[in-house]
Amino acid sequence: MALRARLDPAAWTLVALVAWLLWPVPLVAPVSQDHTVHLTRAYLVGQQLAHGHVSGWSSAWYFGVPIGELYPVLGDLGVATLHAIGLGALDWHHAYAVTFALAVLASGHALVATSRVVGWGTAPGLVAATAWLLDPGAPREGGFAFTVEFGVWLQPLSSSWATLGLACLWRAQRDAPLDARALARGGLWLAAALLTHPAAMPMLAVAATTMLLAGSPRRTRMALVLGCGGALGLGLAAWWLLPLLAARDAMANFGTLHVSITQLVRALVAGRFAANMPAALGYAALGGMVALALRRDRFGIALASGSLALWLLSASESMTVLRLDRLASGFGALQYQRLSIAAKPGIMLCAGWAAVALARAARARWHTGAAAPARAVALASTATL
């Protein structure tokens, strides 16, 4: 098992791609936009850990700020852990650079793992991960522009882990008897997603609903698995999640309204689920969604439904028409546009599935066409003899 992991071609392909994409990171720490904020917060969390606390108050930032309470800490803990393991060889800047590079790699590999877990194989996941990592992106819509240049790398990581967690839960209910290990892994990935970025909460609420409605004909079994996996994930993340929710009145709206649903649909007609998305990728994702529905692939249908729902919820109507802020004031502080980031893992996986299915069909057709002349030659030779 360990040898197979070390020789995994997909993993090494992603390592090479991430190294090319981020260079000179991890040798040099990125310092653009939010990167310095993440680095500072990781340092302050490290100071708390040095005094035996996971969270606390620091007067080193602004007029004082709570540390480890109002933002998920998994990324900060990763940086602090690498700094501690380095025993001085890795200063905070280099510990951050390595953590950032590993996070980008992990977000891509999660799509490969998702494809494997649900039985699609490695190839669709690798194509999806490649598209995910090479996505040009835009502000508040993920991709290279937002993840690397703006330094908002924790939400893409959280979204990919949430997708993998739901895939594990789907796998758990599919098998008979119930796959307890897949259930446990699903809960762990959901906890990791929640501890990485708060956008995991609305993403999981939407995606779990579509998984329940479309992921299996045995909805009672699906509900049981989602409930158990969700309870495990929430339980493991509760030590951070509950203090955050207790401070929900302190949330402030830093968002801007996205385009309308009409504009989203117009862009989709042109092959774009998000800004700067290549049309071929968008059409491949659409084709994959339709083909998965026609094949009655339960996971594919749930994945596509959840991705489309999140994509639609990124529109301005989520704020101006749904008015969820009337139910809870916290909804008024959401950057709904960033739900498009949560939709992208599913979109990329559908595109990857479509690309691989098309390639396999073309190869089969080519082999069939190539075999016909060979059979004709063989028959002619036999007749001559």
Largest sheet at a glance? 2 strands, antiparallel
Could you say which overall geometry the principal axes of the C-alpha atoms support? Answer: globular
Helix fraction? 55-70%
Radius of gyration: 23 Å
Helix count from the secondary structure assignment: 16
Strand content: under 5%
Give the terminus-to-terminus CA distance: 54 Å
Give the strand order of the largest sheet, numbering strands 1, 2, ... along the chain: 1-2
Low-pLDDT runs of 5+ residues are 374-385
- Quaternary structure: single chain
List SSEs in N-to-C order. HHHEEHHHHHHHHHHHHH
Q: What is the residue-averaged pLDDT?
A: 87
Tally the beta strands.
2
Q: Helix/strand-derived class? A: mainly alpha
Task: List its traits.
mainly alpha, two-stranded antiparallel sheet, 2% strand, disordered C terminus
In brief:
Helix content is 69%, strand content 2%. It has helices at residues 2-6, 9-22, 35-50, 74-86, 92-117, 122-134, 143-149, 154-174, 180-194, 200-214, 219-246, 261-269, 279-294, 298-313, 317-322, 339-384, and strands at residues 56-58, 65-67.
Describe the structure.
This protein has 385 residues and is mainly alpha-helical. The chain is 69% helix and 2% strand. The protein is built from 16 helices and two strands. The protein has helices at 2-6, 9-22, 35-50, 74-86, 92-117, 122-134, 143-149, 154-174, 180-194, 200-214, 219-246, 261-269, 279-294, 298-313, 317-322, 339-384; strands at residues 56-58, 65-67. Strands 1-2 form a two-stranded antiparallel sheet. Helix 2 (9-22) packs parallel to helix 6. It is globular, with a radius of gyration of 23 Å.
